[in-house]
């Protein structure tokens, strides 16, 4: 049976997207309305805390939530290491001189620009929605459990989202580090990174001598040995990173970038190679899948339209090739479906109801045969009360402390996510 969601969440979500777009149309009104909207939403969430009936379910989902968060942070750390590696290993000269790959999706969008009315093309070009919007839309979805818009527990939904995101990020990092693809923006690496201009000695030995000459490639295949004499390798800067010195060959720091390995990873950003598949699109698809499954309705269709708009913009602005967006869409859908089979938290309350219903099935059938609607109603209320008994057990003070800590932590995460991703 599908969860019947009350209206309101979709309106709030679309209002957020519309108000945030005012930054491009009327920055003055945007500066006024956006803080007001967030204040109203935060205040409404805090007011609903005393009336929320599912804190026990949230408490049981807290450990999977924290574990999923740590798993996701570990995956993001591995991804940041991989991003820096694929940018640094070949050197800046390779990034500047290697042309982008031919992309039929880019050709199609350029052809569409010539055929469609100018106003439609401007809508396709508009920065309507970005990465931080999709993250905020999911957080609004998770918070809506306080208003019974989404089935509890909200922490369970958040845990599944982060767990799925972590798997997607790991698969993404493994994919783009396996084969290094040139960026669709050849100037990117020179503008954003300070890595050495020449290749790392690994690339000098195993890639450079066989990169373009057909006879060398044929001989390499025949001998299956790196036979070329590359001479003496240029040396790299090697700071003292103590126990983390093994990262030097992967990150290739320079003296101008400072002495901290962590600061290098913070500068990695989205990288300057083509990173197959798109991380932005993975976030967008997971948000749309979560919204569709948990809430549904007309707003879900709008979010999927936003996903498609974001995909064509990624291709149009050459942040990614078309293949990156296509792969991200079906990987995101498949990963969300996969975690749905292994995520037990969401169905715990439903399982308790079904167990209780099985115990009174005989009496319920007999009451229905006797047309005793009062008895039927009494038995159904017994099922509902029985499913909540375990939630009402335990010290109320401890649940209040947990509720306050959860709301404070969640609002802090929202603020940090909004701040760190506001530039897309």
Question: What's this entry about, in short?
Answer:
By secondary structure, the chain is mainly alpha-helical. Helix content is 69%, strand content 0%.
Structure overview:
The relative contact order is 0.14. The radius of gyration is 27 Å and the shape is elongated. The protein is built from 20 helices and no strands. The longest helix has 34 residues. By secondary structure, it is mainly alpha-helical.
What features would you highlight for this structure?
424 residues; mainly alpha; 20 helices; elongated
Radius of gyration: 27 Å
DSSP helix fraction: 55-70%
In percent, how much strand structure appears in the residues?
Answer: under 5%
Q: What coarse outline follows from CA principal-axis ratios?
A: elongated
Report how far apart the termini are: 37 Å
The H/E string reads HHHHHHHHHHHHHHHHHHHH
* Mean pLDDT across every amino acid position: 82
For the biggest sheet, the summary is:
none
Contiguous runs where pLDDT drops below 50 for at least 5 residues: 389-395
User: Number of helical runs?
Assistant: 20
Per DSSP E runs of 2 or more residues, the count of β-strands stands at 0
By helix and strand content, what is the structural category?
mainly alpha
């Amino acid at each position: 049976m599908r969860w019947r969601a009350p209206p309101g969440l979709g309106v709030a979500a679309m209002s957020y997207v519309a108000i945030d777009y005012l930054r491009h149309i009327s920055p003055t009104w945007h500066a006024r309305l956006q803080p007001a909207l967030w204040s109203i939403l935060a205040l409404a969430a805090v007011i609903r805390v005393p009336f929320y009936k599912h804190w026990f379910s949230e408490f049981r989902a807290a450990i999977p939530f924290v574990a999923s968060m740590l798993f996701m942070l570990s995956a993001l750390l591995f991804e940041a290491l991989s991003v820096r590696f694929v940018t640094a290993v070949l050197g800046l000269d390779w990034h500047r001189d290697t042309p982008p790959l031919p992309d039929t999706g880019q050709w199609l969008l350029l052809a569409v620009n010539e055929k469609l009315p100018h106003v439609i093309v401007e809508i396709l070009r508009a920065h309507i929605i970005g990465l931080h919007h999709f993250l905020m839309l999911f957080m609004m979805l998770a918070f809506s459990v306080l208003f019974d818009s989404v089935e509890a527990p909200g922490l369970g939904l958040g845990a599944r989202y982060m767990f799925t995101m972590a798997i997607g990020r790991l698969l993404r990092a493994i994919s783009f580090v396996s084969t290094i693809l040139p960026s669709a923006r050849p100037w990117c690496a020179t503008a954003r990174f300070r890595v050495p201009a020449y290749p790392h000695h690994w690339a000098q030995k195993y890639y450079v001598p066989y990169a373009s000459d057909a006879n060398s490639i044929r001989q390499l295949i025949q001998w299956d040995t790196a036979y070329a004499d590359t001479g003496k390798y240029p040396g790299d800067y090697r700071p003292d990173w103590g126990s983390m010195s093994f990262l030097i060959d992967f990150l290739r720091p320079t003296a101008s970038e400072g002495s901290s390995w962590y600061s290098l990873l913070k500068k990695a950003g989205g990288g300057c190679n083509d990173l197959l598949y798109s991380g932005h699109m993975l976030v967008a698809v997971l948000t749309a899948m979560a919204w569709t499954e948990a809430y549904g309705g007309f707003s879900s269709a709008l979010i999927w339209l936003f996903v498609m708009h974001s995909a064509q913009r990624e291709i149009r602005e050459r942040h990614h090739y078309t293949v990156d967006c296509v792969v991200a869409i079906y990987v995101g859908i498949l990963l969300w479906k996969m975690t749905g089979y292994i995520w037990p938290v969401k169905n715990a309350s439903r399982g308790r109801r079904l167990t209780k219903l099985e115990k009174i099935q005989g009496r319920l059938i007999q009451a229905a045969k006797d047309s005793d609607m009062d008895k039927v109603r009494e038995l159904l209320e017994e099922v509902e009360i029985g499913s909540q008994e375990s939630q009402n057990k335990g010290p109320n003070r401890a649940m209040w402390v947990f509720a306050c800590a959860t709301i404070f932590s969640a609002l802090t995460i929202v603020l940090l996510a909004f701040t760190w991703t506001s530039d897309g």
